[in-house]
């Protein structure tokens, strides 16, 4: 789930891996991955872990009706984890295409080129493989 900025929440969104993949959590439990910080509030990822947990749990309680403390938690901080496509980024894309055209055998693929989602990264890899196979 993505949480729009207008909701004024601490969390940016969450994934539900145990709802998609089996054996990601023990029976009767769920695994959630919650995202915080981001380009607009990077300082949040550096907060005290107890305060982070309190704020994230408040969001999950309000949004999903969850209650109680987690039976397991792990905090991972990934500075600059998701690419930010800023105004003017198209010139970098054009430069990559130009380098590929001028230097056969060099190929660019991945989230920095074709979108940040896993789906976009997979499609980027498939497209690049198809271009190499030509």
Any descriptors?
2 strands, elongated, two-stranded antiparallel ribbon, 134 residues, mainly alpha, 2 domains
Structural account:
The chain has helices at 17-20, 49-64, 90-102, 111-114, 118-133, and strands at residues 11-15, 33-36. It has 134 residues and is mainly α. The chain folds into 2 domains: 5-64, no CATH class; 90-133, no CATH class. It has a two-stranded antiparallel sheet with strand order 1-2. It starts with 10 loop residues before the first strand and ends with a helix.
SSE arrangement:
Elements: E1 11-15, H1 17-20, E2 33-36, H2 49-64, H3 90-102, H4 111-114, H5 118-133
Antiparallel strand pairs: 1-2
Quick summary:
This protein has helices spanning 17-20, 49-64, 90-102, 111-114, 118-133; strands at residues 11-15, 33-36.
Q: Given the helix and strand composition, which structural class is it?
A: mainly alpha
Write down the Rg: 19 Å
Number of helices: 5
Work out the number of β strands.
Answer: 2
- Helix residue percentage: 25-40%
What distance lies between the first and last C-alpha atoms, to the nearest angstrom?
Answer: 39 Å
What characterizes the major β-sheet? 2 strands, antiparallel
Strand order of the largest sheet: 1-2
Q: What share of the residues does DSSP label as strand, in percent? A: 5-15%
Overall shape: elongated
The number of domains is 2
- H and E order: EHEHHHH
Unreliable stretches (pLDDT < 50, length at least 5) are none
User: Could you report the average pLDDT, rounded to the nearest whole number?
Assistant: 91
């Amino acid at each position: 789930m993505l949480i729009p900025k207008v909701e004024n929440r601490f969390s940016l969104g969450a994934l539900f891996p145990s709802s998609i993949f089996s054996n990601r959590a023990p029976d009767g439990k769920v695994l959630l991955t919650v995202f915080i910080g981001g380009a607009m509030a990077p300082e949040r990822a550096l907060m005290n872990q107890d305060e982070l947990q309190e704020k994230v749990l408040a969001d999950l309680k309000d949004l999903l009706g969850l209650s109680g403390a987690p039976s397991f938690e792990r905090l991972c901080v990934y500075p600059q984890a998701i690419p930010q496509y800023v105004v003017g980024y198209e010139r970098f894309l054009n430069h990559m295409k130009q380098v590929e055209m001028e230097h056969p055998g060099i190929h660019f693929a991945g989230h920095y080129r074709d979108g940040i989602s896993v789906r976009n990264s997979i499609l980027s890899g498939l497209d690049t493989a198809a271009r190499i196979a030509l």
